[in-house]
Amino acid sequence: MISYRNGFSECAHRRASYGQHAWKPLFNESRPVCQGQNSHQFKDRPDNNFRSESRNFFDGSVTPVTPASSWPQELLMRRQLAAILAIPTVLNGLAMLMAGPLWYETVPGVPDTGPFNPHFVQDIGAAFLVAGLALAVRAWRPRYWPAAVAGAGFLAAHGLIHLVLIISGHAHHAAFDLLAVVLPSALALYSAFPNQGEQHA
After folding, report:
1. Distances (CA, A) of 99 to 70, 104, 124, 127, 155
2. Which residue, among 128, 127, 119, 118, has the nearest Cα to 90 in the 3D structure?
3. Predicted local confidence at residue 29, as pLDDT
4. Confidence (pTM)
5. Contacts by residues 134-138 (CB-CB < 8 Å, ≥ 24 positions apart)
6. What is the DSSP annotation of 27-78?
7. What is the number of H-type helices and E-type strands within the chain?
8. C-alpha angle with apex 149: 95 to 78, nearest 5 degrees?
9. Residue 119: how many other CB atoms lie within 10 Å
10. Of 121, 123, 113, 115, residue with least CA distance to 165
11. Cα 200 to chain center, whole Å?
């Protein structure tokens, strides 16, 4: 009876000890394997990607994307705008030079300024003609923009005078002056000046 118990206890002890010894290496060996299998899950987590990108950003390793230059399109737009504005400006100058009385009676608000002065109308007509030709040259050859700036400068000064009259309430045809004089003069000044790409070309 005693030997049976001893034998049983020895057998149970051996099985228990074998089980313990068997579990220890199994657990110890499987842990790095499981860690290796699960490591990619932690690497692919969004928060880890955000942290890595944040570190790269603050370390200066991320290269900012440089936007494509748009100055050729802007230059084309300025040239087209200069060409469009050059047409009515040249026509207005020719009308003042060649048909002063008709121009004086046709343009809204002009007869309200006083009696017709042919010499004065022709002088202003010559200025409009030169300004229109300068805008046309800008549309033809962009490198001649200084001439366009000079011509647009006259138009801008003329538009500023009308703008002051509109603000002060002395303009008899404020809507016409705003659309036919002030706005075109501002657009002419914009089209005449070179953009950043032309300055660095």
Report:
1. 44, 9, 13, 15, 21
2. 128
3. 47
4. 0.63
5. 134/192, 135/82, 135/83, 135/85, 135/86, 135/89, 135/188, 135/191, 135/192, 136/82, 136/83, 136/86, 136/90, 138/78, 138/79, 138/82, 138/86, 138/191, 138/192
6. HHHHHHHHHHHHHHHHHT-HHHHHHHHHHHHHHT-SPPPPPPP-HHHHHHHH
7. 9, 0
8. 90
9. 7
10. 113
11. 18
Tokens of 70: 């748009």
Q: How far lies 132's CA from each of 84, 137, 184, in Å?
A: 10, 9, 12
d(CA 159, CA 153): 10
Model pLDDT, residue 1:
44
> Rounded CA gap, 22 and 103, in Å?
112
Single-letter code of the amino acid located at 100: G
CB 159 within 8 A of CB 186: yes
Pairwise CA distance, residues 110 & 104, whole Å? 6
Could you say which residues of the chain have pLDDT below 70?
1-69, 197-201
The kind and range of the H/E element at 192 are helix 183-192
89 to each of 24, 154, 165, 193, how far by Cα in Å? 97, 12, 21, 18
- pLDDT of 21 reads 47
pLDDT at position 75, please?
A: 86
